[in-house]
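Shift notes (night). Ran SMI1/KNR4 family protein while the centrifuge was going.
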Amino acid sequence: MSEIPALQNPTHILIEKHAVKLLRIKKLMATIKHQWAAINPSMNFESPIWTETEIDVFEQEKKIQLPEEYKACLMEVGEISRDYFRGLLNISLRNRLAKDFTRMKKKAISATKVHNVGSLYGKGWINESCFNVLKEEDKFRLYRKVPLFSPDASYEELFRLKSWDAYLNGCLDLGDDKYLILNGDFKGEVWKYGFEPEGEYAPTKYRECFTPVSAKRPHLLDSIIESLTKNT
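Came back to this:
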């Protein structure tokens, strides 16, 4: 295996703060590249590094402030190729549309619109059709001994947003339906749209929900480590 690269900006305040996790990510990336490069030479393992100046210029041009873990990742790990995750995660910013940045600046979903929806990963948001399915299951005690919602619970009160896709406001799309929340009550956490409950919450259909990506409620670097670890 090739030598694992050291930190490129070891004295930078952000890099010092997240050094352990960044080095862990680099080690995992080196392992994956070694495992797969010989098997499939066409896989793209390039991860363009951003300089601090490039990040500053980008933030000024887009009038947006990127999370510190995201910036630390760009400066040390780069825009990680999707092949490291086999299509699971993508951190690219270069070709985002103007509307994407407009949405990122909006207020993210608040804790008042997040409730127990039967996810193993914690409270989340669901669309109205799934809410109705869960209410019907509650009514007939399907799959659950204890109902998720009270009999008089309303979608309007619990989950209604200004628009059907407003749950993605204040989020940065990471690919594979994963999103980095940029502001508000869940700032810094990585969430995922869509899950299939297990065990007590076995579903009658695929649930369209927005919940933390795992029970650990990871922030970006921990989420990357989780994803890379699954592929080593």
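Strands lie at 125-126, 171-175, 178-181, 190-195, 207-212. The first helix runs from residue 13 to 17.
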